[in-house]
From TrEMBL:
Keyword annotations: Cobalt, Glycosidase, Hydrolase, Iron, Manganese, Metal-binding, NAD, Nickel
All residue ranges annotated as the Glycosyl hydrolase family 4 C-terminal domain in the record: 197-416
Catalytic center residues: 173 (proton donor), 264 (proton acceptor)
Protein name: Glycosyl hydrolase family 4 C-terminal domain-containing protein
Binding site for Mn(2+): 172, 202
Family: Belongs to the glycosyl hydrolase 4 family.
Record InterPro entries: GlycHydrolase_4_CS (IPR019802), Glyco_hydro_4 (IPR001088), Glyco_hydro_4_C (IPR022616), Lactate_DH/Glyco_Ohase_4_C (IPR015955), NAD(P)-bd_dom_sf (IPR036291)
Keyword Zinc recorded: no
Ligand binding (substrate): 95, 149, 284
Gene Ontology molecular functions: hydrolase activity, hydrolyzing O-glycosyl compounds; metal ion binding; oxidoreductase activity, acting on the CH-OH group of donors, NAD or NADP as acceptor
Source organism phylogeny: Bacteria, Fusobacteriati, Fusobacteriota, Fusobacteriia, Fusobacteriales
């Protein structure tokens, strides 16, 4: 029997990640057959460049796909089976401010952590809610796979706005990327690993990673990391700032040797040290605008003008695109593969509140995630997670209630700030910079 053919819509079609994602869709045509692919974006110029590239890609690699790009929600979402969501409200220009404003006031400047993540979250929530309302108007049954950041805050806000929607799944690629990195260090295929993981998004730990014979690989990974350091699976393609980030895994293991940490924990364990290492005049946003964004758009323009793919270096498969497509495939065909996803706790971590949005491993099938329980976690991890989740929840409440008081509480609780006077200064500066995007805080 022929497999069903699916329709995919990519919201944020003009994203720098879209070419890699489209390439992954082409690569998996044998296992995940597609009828139609649509790009949707609210920036027509940006999307046109990627859309014209996609026409060439599909003509060469997947000619049976009916492809189009649009700014119309009706065209984008009617009849779709999966929405892959990767929007960035405010673009890289606002990411740059998220990173630079806190740094100028003595705190970490980062896309998803600390005050930068707070500012980005306060911009993302409104657009995400509007987008899902549009999706549900035209595609009530579609799966909505979200990886728009900051995923922790977005996930909590979406749970509040759409409490009964069982087809919204929030997911991050960093755990998969770490698993691939472990695979490279061990000389093994990471797709065979069975991970045990707990935490919040960009704030978690691998406690065990079993191979197919049930052997836990974490002790060996710790040894290798402590003796020889740590680097990403795709180290050759990484900018220096990411290599520095991965190298910090060794420092984290020296101080807290229980588990393999998510790279983002470096900002919370070492806020002073990391702040001193970041250049307030040239942050990751500058590196991306001058690097990935430039390369992707230049190459897409060249391919569209030439009308053929040729030798394409930039538009390659990466962990990110492949993971999203494999996740959709696992849902579509009820394959129940294991992914690390963001879900409501509901007892998974037994000594944490039920309504915390945690990140844990789950089987992923046609009815969504069936997450694995983790049991009781240690006091250090519980303390860190509760403080961080309180910050995330207060951020969401600040947005819904337009509350300055809650915003100030959120930033004061964040480990990258701590001091309430510093939190107030940063908040006031971020309010000024985000006038166009945030609700009014009173
Ligand atoms: N969770 C993860 O693991 C993960 C990994 C990679 C990227 N991301 C996220 O994916 C998103 C895209 O990242 P990027 O670096 O490619 O950014 P980008 O700015 O290149 O792409 C975002 C696109 O979204 C569009 N957009 C913005 N608001 C929109 C709206 N309301 N409706 C429709 N389109 C809209 C923009 O015009 C832009 O083309 C970001 O949120 C990023 O944080 C998440
Ligand atoms: O600074 P950026 O824009 O390069 O990346 C920010 C994102 O970083 C993580 O994603 C990694 C991903 O894990 C890896 O597989 C590969 O595709 O690169 C990405 C970026 O380096 C993170 O998980 C995302 O949430 C961030 O948006
Ligand atoms: Mn992520």
């Amino acid at each position: 029997m022929n497999k069903k053919e699916f329709t995919i819509t990519i919201a944020g079609g003009g994203s720098t990640w879209t070419p890699g994602l489209l390439k992954a869709l082409c690569k998996r045509k044998g296992t995940f057959p597609l009828k139609r692919v649509v790009l949707f974006d609210n920036n027509p110029e940006r999307q046109e460049v990627i859309g014209e590239f996609a026409k060439v890609l599909f003509k060469e690699e997947y000619p049976t796909v009916d492809f189009e790009y649009t700014t119309s929600p009706e065209v984008a979402f009617t009849g779709t089976d999966f929405v892959f969501c990767q929007i960035r409200t405010g673009g890289y220009k606002m990411r740059e401010l998220d990173e630079k404003i806190p740094l100028s006031l003595g705190a970490i400047g980062q896309e998803t952590c600390g005050p930068g993540g707070f500012a980005y979250g306060m911009r993302s929530i409104g657009d995400m809610i509007k987008l899902i309302e549009e999706v549900r108007k035209y595609a009530p049954e579609a799966w909505f796979l979200n990886y728009t950041n900051p995923a922790a805050i977005v996930a909590d806000a979406l749970k509040k706005a759409f409490p009964n929607d069982k087809k919204i799944l929030n997911i991050c690629d960093q755990p998969v990327n770490l698993l691939r990195s472990y695979g490279r260090l061990l000389g093994m295929d990471s797709s065979e690993f069975e991970p045990v993981y707990f935490g919040l998004n960009h704030f978690g730990w691998f406690t065990n990673i079993y191979d197919k014979n049930g052997v836990d690989l974490v002790p060996k990974l710790k040894d290798i990391t402590l003796n020889s350091g740590f680097k990403p699976a795709d180290a050759e393609q990484r900018d220096q700032s990411w290599l520095d980030t991965y190298a910090m895994v060794r420092d984290m293991l020296v101080d807290f040797p229980d588990y393999m940490p998510n790279t983002y924990l470096q900002y919370y364990y070492y806020p002073e040290y990391k702040k001193a290492k970041l250049d307030p005049e040239y942050t990751r946003a500058n590196e991306v605008m001058n690097g990935r964004e430039k390369r992707v758009f230049e190459e897409c323009r060249e391919i569209a003008a030439r009308g053929s793919m040729g030798e394409s270096n930039v538009v390659h498969n990466d962990a990110h695109g492949e993971m999203i497509v494999e996740v959709a495939e696992s849902i579509a065909f009820n394959e129940n593969r294991i992914y690390i996803v963001i879900v409501q706790n509901n007892g998974l971590i037994s000594n944490l509140d039920d309504d915390v949005m945690v990140e844990v491993a789950a089987n992923l099938g046609i009815n969504g995630p069936r997450p694995f329980g983790v049991g009781k976690i240690g006091t250090f991890y519980k303390g860190l997670m509760e403080q961080q989740f309180a910050y995330e929840r207060l951020t969401v409440e600040a947005w819904f209630e337009g509350s300055y008081a809650k915003a100030l509480q959120a930033l004061t609780l964040n480990r990258t700030i701590v001091d309430a006077k510093k939190a107030r200064k940063i908040l006031d500066a971020l309010i000024e910079a985000n006038k166009e995007y945030w609700p009014t805080l009173r």
